[in-house]
Amino acid sequence: MMKRLIASVFVAVLAAGPLASSALAQGLPPEMPVNRADLMVRKAGGILIDVRRPDEWAQTGVPVTAHTVSVADDNFISQVDRVTGGNKSQRIALICRSGNRSTEARDKLLAAGYQNVTSVAGGVMGPDGWIDADLPVRPFR
Fold first, then answer.
1. Residue 18 in 3-state DSSP?
2. Which one, of 70, 74, 66, 84, lies nearest residue 120 by Cα?
3. 32: helix, strand or coil
4. Strand locations in the chain (E)
5. pTM assigned to the model
6. Residue 97 has what DSSP assignment?
């Protein structure tokens, strides 16, 4: 029985892959709801990064606490390094339109050695996202 349980856990970790297990090992889930991400930023010293494109920032505004660093930018990692001061253990929540690009950005940051990175479920525009939760946005300049 115990051997089967250990084997099941081992298989689950392998299936999740090294990037997902790295995020879990540091206490952040691979994905987190917008309200929890907002609290992490406002109350626990986390950083929120909006990884959409500038035209999207201009269209909808940007979450009020977010830094803007587009995952499409060739210098994405170095720009995040600037935002975090190079602190690879900084808690980071990534947000995009609906959750796909923030997952891509999370995986890039984990591969670059960041340890506490999560994607915000629902993004800015998705169901149960930032705007649906009535969280504040600011105009992008």
1. helix
2. 66
3. strand
4. 31-32, 47-50, 62-63, 66-68, 91-95, 116-120, 137-138
5. 0.82
6. S
